[in-house]
């Protein structure tokens, strides 16, 4: 900082507030020099720049507590910080708010604001959104890395049952953990497909048989295949429930509820078949069993557990509720208007198919959605004109929200791929850091090997030590290394 207001001495009179307000300072940040005035800086006295005004009176200790270097000949202070971020941060002294420039990492910008002691409340809401999104991404990376580290680590203090529980959980829930786990995932996927195919094939009349009461039922071979599939699903669900670290969260998870809905109808129908006939009429039992067997279609949703594409599609639809709501609103308004017009215009025709406005809703739905079954159609000229307009409005209404929905799908899919890659890179950095630590401590290796029997495998313990380099508190509070997550720009 160069004091341009006083050429005799760099010291500033702390008792002279007017002198402080008239003080002109020049700050050198990363080779870029900026000029400030005391009256602007004193608006926020708790910031680092405002503290610079009075730092010269405190001596070199006070000076170097605020800056990286000081040249007494030029009376200039140096800061080894990002000049681009600094140009954005100084807006608070002139406009009372800060906008983050495009291309700057939000986390790095937050760190810069903390260095210059500027409160985050001055950051505009639009930029806070980018910061929160970046935090969520980094927390997701940290969560994935932590899960991998937990899988690699072995806690000798845990009981044998706990270790077995973790092994079963990884075996069934994490196909990427080992080759046998991949085989189990493929088998589960095949059982889902086989069960779905059997459910469909069992409805073919030529493959059905007649029971003792004269009713057509599924072939016994198909029933046996169905029983085997249900046995696999049941065993898989029970093992996953037993090995789950949080059983309440596991039971209330949406996909696990789907698993229960796919399994439960088989046992309920089996119970009704053998015991229900004694409590109710046989026809009622058969109707109940038939209704429960229809619920078997829920097992097709089990494919979402093994398909990242279906998971991405589900998330995209959840993020597109607003667009889907607008679509339904447009269609609802159009259906009501065009069905009422169609009913009114078709009343003059003696053979009209529009008997009432509620009945015309069906015609408006299949017309606006461009299906057009042809079971109900207008016969008058005005009715045909109304149908043409409703068709065009339906095409426009359906086409409007398609682009935002596709964008949500692509954005989430690309984000998941980036997070997976980032987690792998972070693990690679941890391995490199652990190798450096191992090389630096090669002289004390015999002691480390002696502790290996008490603390677990050497590789896992080293990896856990090295993962504390990340700044994400989810992984560790300590910081020993500066990694890609800390230095992202």
Plain-language structure description:
There is one protein chain. The chain folds into three domains: 123 residues, Potassium Channel Kv1.1, Chain A; 144 residues, Four Helix Bundle (Hemerythrin (Met), subunit A), CATH 1.20.120; 116 residues, Helix Hairpins, CATH 1.10.287. 18% of the residues are buried. Helix content is 62%, strand content 5%. Strand 3 and strand 4 form a beta hairpin. Keywords: Cell membrane, Ion channel, Ion transport, Membrane, Potassium, Potassium channel, Potassium transport, Transmembrane, Transmembrane helix, Transport, Voltage-gated channel. InterPro entries: Ion_trans_dom (IPR005821), K_chnl_volt-dep_Kv (IPR003968), K_chnl_volt-dep_Kv5/Kv9 (IPR003971), KCNF1-like_BTB_POZ (IPR048010), SKP1/BTB/POZ_sf (IPR011333), T1-type_BTB (IPR003131), VG_K_chnl (IPR028325), Volt_channel_dom_sf (IPR027359). Its main location: membrane.
